[in-house]
Amino acid sequence: MKCPFCQHEETQVLDTRVSEEGDAIRRRRRCGKCDKRFTTYERIELVMPYVVKKNGSRTEYTAAKLRGSLELALRKRPVAAPAVDAAIASIEEKLLTSGKREVETGYIGELVMQELQRLDNVAYIRFASVYKNFEDLAEFQNAIAEVGKPARK
Prior knowledge:
By secondary structure, this protein is of the alpha+beta class. The protein has helices spanning 63-73, 81-97, 105-119, 121-131, 137-148; strands at residues 11-18, 24-31, 37-43, 50-52, 58-59, 102-104. The mean pLDDT is 87. Its cofactor is Zn(2+).
């Protein structure tokens, strides 16, 4: 760690503590050259993968877009806000733990459909109709029949 005062590269750690919030490590350091003291913090940096759109363009992951899609599908449905937050957290966790630097929009869409099916069948059908680009009534009927099937064990 370079000293912020003299740029010397050798510093000594005097004290290490976990921050009050528990999300960082605080270290007190002393420069070996100028003998000045300073504090550094280590924090976890979570990097979401880039999203590859259908046209091949790449964009940063945006949590607001994910929330907007879920809220649109769940509009006027009896689903509590904490359940929506948990669904978003679940999707984001799956994106982070996938280990991929880039994910396709289709992968995110499938994760959203899984969460919506768990939360509310009507919202699932709403989202699926747009996501899968339903063209006729038969596709709606097939999706409704799929939702109505008992879960496999």
